[in-house]
Write a structure and sequence with these properties.
The structure is a homodimer. By secondary structure, chain A is of the alpha+beta class. Chain A folds into two domains: 2-85, Orthogonal Bundle (Arc Repressor Mutant, subunit A), CATH 1.10.10.10; 89-243, Chorismate lyase (3-Layer(aba) Sandwich). The first copy, chain A, has eight helices and nine strands. The first copy, chain A, has helices spanning 2-14, 24-38, 48-55, 59-71, 99-105, 124-129, 174-180, 199-204; strands at residues 75-78, 81-85, 110-120, 138-147, 150-160, 187-196, 212-221, 227-236, 242-246. Chain A has a six-stranded antiparallel sheet. A two-stranded antiparallel sheet of chain A has the order 1-2. Chain A is elongated and about 65 Å long. The interface between A and B is large, with 75 and 74 residues. Strand 9 of chain A pairs antiparallel with strand 6 (187-196) of chain B, so a sheet runs across the interface. The first copy, chain A, binds a DNA duplex through helix 4 and strand 2.
DNA sequence: AGTCCGGCCTGGTACATACCAGTCCGGCCC
DNA sequence: GGGCCGGACTGGTATGTACCAGGCCGGACT
C-alpha cells in the first residue's frame, strides 16, 4: 500500500516537465490529492517523516503539502496518529468551480443561449453595486444557462465599460475576457436567497410562475478593491442546488446550532 | 502607523496568560486580524522581516500567521510588495457562525420555540444520511428559530441515540451536548436548495403556502468519519438569506462564468 | 519633466534542526 | 484474557539559513 503510493508519487515528482512552475509542495499536494480521491476514506497515509525520507524532500515541505490538503478537507490530521483520507465531501460553495465544470462534474452537458450583450444605463441596484458615477454606462450580458439542453438558470451580468468596452467580445467566459484585459477579479461575495418565478422567468426556464427560485447575487472585485462585476443569477429551484462543506475553525466547530 | 501597530501587538504578545494554549502564530494572527478589521482596507502591514525582528520571533512564524490571515481573506499578499488589508467581505458560508451569533451580527435578537425532542424511528432520508442499522432509533429535535420574536426557520435535527441518548438534555445548543459527550462534529456538508412552503411550514412561519423557502440539509461527521447529525432547516425565503465570499484558488480565480 | 535602470526591499520556496504533545502497540503482570 | 506501562513513532510548533522572483524607489540621463 504505502510502498506503492510512495513509488507512484516519487516517479511523478521525478519526471516533472520544465514548464511546470508549481513548487514542490504544490506538486506533492496535487499528487496526494489524486491518490486520496481514488482510495477509500479512512486510508492512512505514510508518516510525514517517511514521505520526506523516501521522496528525498524536506519534512517541512511535506507538511506544507499536507496543510493544503487539510485546508481542502481531503485529509484528517491528529497529533500522534498518521494522517488519513477524510470522508469525501462536495466542492466548497465558496470556491465555486466554473458553471460548465460543475455541470460536467454532475455528468451533464453545459450550454448557453445569449439573450443580449449590450451597452446600457445601469439599473439602480447595478449602479450601487458597481460604485458608478451618475450617467455612467455599463456592459450588460444576459443569457440562459443550459444543462443537457434544458434551461436551468437566467444570468444577468453588469460590468463597468472601463473593463469591458465591447460586450460582444464575450463568448463563453466573461472572466477570460477580463483577464486578457488585465483586470481579473480576485475576490467576490455572494448573497443567496429564495424567490418565486415571474412570468418571464417561467417562460425562459420552461417552468411555471410561482415555482421556487434560488437567486444568487454576486459582486466581484479587482485586486485594488474596485468592483468589476455584479451578476444576478436566477436558478430553477427544482433543477439546481448548492453543495458546500463545513470546516472546523480554530479547533472549534462553528455551527448554526451554537 | 506601523510603529503603533507593532507596539500594540508586542505588548499583547508579551502579556499572554498562562492558560492561553494558543501557539504564537495563532496569537499573532488573531491580533493582526483584529487590527485589520479596525482599519481601512488597503492598509499596508509592516514587512514580515520587520515584524519578526521587532516582535522577537522567527520570520517563519510570522509567515505562518499571515498564511492564516490570507486563508481567511483578511490580507492580500504579493511577492515584493508588503501585505495589505483586503477588502472586507462577509462571513463565509462554509464556516457559518452560530445561528444566534449570526442574528446578533445582523442586530437581531435570537430565540427558539421547541416543537419536539423525542426518540423515534428515523425517516428513510435520515436512516440513509446517518448510516443506521435497520430499526435503529434516533433522537429527533424539532424547533422554530426566531429573530426578534418572529419565526424565520423550522429546524429538524436527527442524531443517532449512541451520541444523544436523551434528547431532552438539549437546551440551546446540540453541539455543546455532543461535545460534552466526547463526540463533537468536526466536519460537515450542506446542500442548499429552493422550495415552496407547505401549509404546515406557512403556519409555523407566519407566512402563506407557496411562499419561497431556502432549504438547507446538513450532515456532520465525527473525526473518524462517522455521521453524527443530519439536519434539515427550512428558512423563510423572504426573511433570510446567505452571504458568502469567493476566494481565489491557486492564483487563479475560479468562477461560475468560466 | 519623463523615462530607465540598478539597488534594496519585499514576499515565496526549500532546507535543516530541536523539542514538545499525543498515539499506538508490544510486553509484562495479575 | 484484560489492564497497565514504557518505548517508539507520530504530528505540531518554533527556530535559523539560503536563495530566488518580483516590486519599489531614487538617481542619472535625455
Amino acid at each position: 500500500m504505502a510502498e506503492d503510493l510512495i513509488a507512484r508519487i516519487g516517479a511523478a515528482l521525478a519526471e516533472v516537465s520544465p514548464s511546470d512552475r508549481r513548487p514542490i509542495y504544490r506538486r506533492l499536494s496535487d499528487l496526494l490529492a489524486r491518490e486520496l480521491r481514488q482510495g477509500p476514506a479512512g486510508t492512512r497515509l505514510p508518516s510525514e517523516r517517511r514521505l520526506a525520507r523516501e521522496l528525498g524532500i524536506s519534512r517541512v515541505t511535506v507538511r506544507r503539502a499536507l496543510d493544503e490538503l487539510s485546508a481542502e478537507g481531503l485529509v484528517l490530521r491528529r497529533r500522534g496518529a498518521r494522517s488519513a483520507a477524510a470522508v469525501r465531501l462536495e466542492k466548497r460553495l465558496s470556491s465555486l468551480t466554473g458553471f460548465s465544470d460543475e455541470l460536467r462534474n454532475r455528468g451533464m452537458r453545459p450550454g448557453q443561449r445569449w439573450l443580449s450583450r449590450q451597452v446600457v444605463l445601469p439599473a439602480p441596484s447595478e449602479a450601487l453595486a458597481l460604485d458608478l458615477a451618475p450617467a455612467e454606462k455599463i456592459a450588460r450580458l444576459e443569457r440562459v444557462r443550459l444543462a443537457d439542453g434544458h434551461p436551468i438558470a437566467i444570468e444577468r451580468a453588469a460590468v463597468p465599460l472601463a473593463y469591458l468596452p465591447d460586450p460582444g467580445l464575450v463568448g463563453d467566459s466573461l472572466y477570460a475576457i477580463l483577464a486578457e484585459g488585465g483586470t481579473p477579479p480576485v475576490r467576490g461575495a455572494q448573497r443567496i436567497r429564495a424567490g418565486l418565478m415571474s412570468g418571464r422567468d417561467a417562460e425562459l426556464l420552461d417552468s411555471r410562475p410561482g415555482a421556487p427560485l434560488l437567486i444568487v447575487e454576486r459582486r466581484c472585485f479587482l485586486a485594488d478593491g474596485r468592483p468589476v462585476e455584479f451578476t444576478e443569477t436566477r436558478y430553477d429551484g427544482e433543477s439546481y442546488d448548492f453543495l458546500t462543506e463545513l470546516q472546523p475553525q480554530n479547533g472549534t466547530y462553528q455551527s448554526e446550532m451554537a
